[in-house]
């Protein structure tokens, strides 16, 4: 997990969003249960969920869309490992420009490619075939943030960056969807995610304390930990909503 050149990237994460293994397994099961024959994941990263759903649905054709070549490469290797390399295609593309509808659309942690969450939901609706589903995941306020809360988070964070959960679901309904499952993660899922996110740097720093890059890596890790433990912890949540598009 460490090299002398620099920290690994997402080396301690199974997927790039906060989620407990049991919840992830349930998402795979529920997505697969609808037997989608076409699946697209917008902003897929390395598409762990996409790979696992495709592996559960014989014959399904899946596309993972992302702009990061390194992550797409990890996705391709994972799909081959799971025996679905011929059915899961990782495509370097702008997610907001994808136009091919699918039975199952996944968009987790990538709403920002469309603008706001409401703009994302509206843009994703026509990508879901009538009778199909959207699994959407993104940040939501766990509590109404105060000005002091906002000031402790990432620079430039505003109240308008994320919705409260009920408002997110209202926006999904306004876009034409019906909600099939609405859930928000527990704090320990965020803590596990942030710990694993920082582990690349922390493990590398322990092995390379005097490396010429160590001071910069340490400063980056310390800053990120501050945004988490003194910033968004307990204030920012993360929601997953499974949405259905009515049949035509
Ligand atoms: C928070 S990550 C989520 C990854 C993945 N959905 C997951 O849950 O593991 C957001 C992803 O969006 C991708 N991304 C950012 N802008 C994009 C764009 N315009 N088009 C496609 N992907 C984009 C990033 O490269 C990154 O992999």
From TrEMBL:
Record-annotated Methyltransferase type domain positions: 40-134
Domain of life: Bacteria
Magnesium among keywords: no
InterPro entries documented for this protein: Methyltransf_12, SAM-dependent_MTases_sf
Any one GO BP annotation for this protein: methylation
Gene3D superfamilies tied to this protein: Vaccinia Virus protein VP39
GO molecular function annotation: methyltransferase activity
Keywords from the UniProt entry: Methyltransferase, Transferase
CDD domains: AdoMet_MTases
PANTHER family documented for this protein: TRANS-ACONITATE 2-METHYLTRANSFERASE (PTHR43861:SF1), TRANS-ACONITATE 2-METHYLTRANSFERASE-RELATED (PTHR43861)
Record protein name field: Class I SAM-dependent methyltransferase
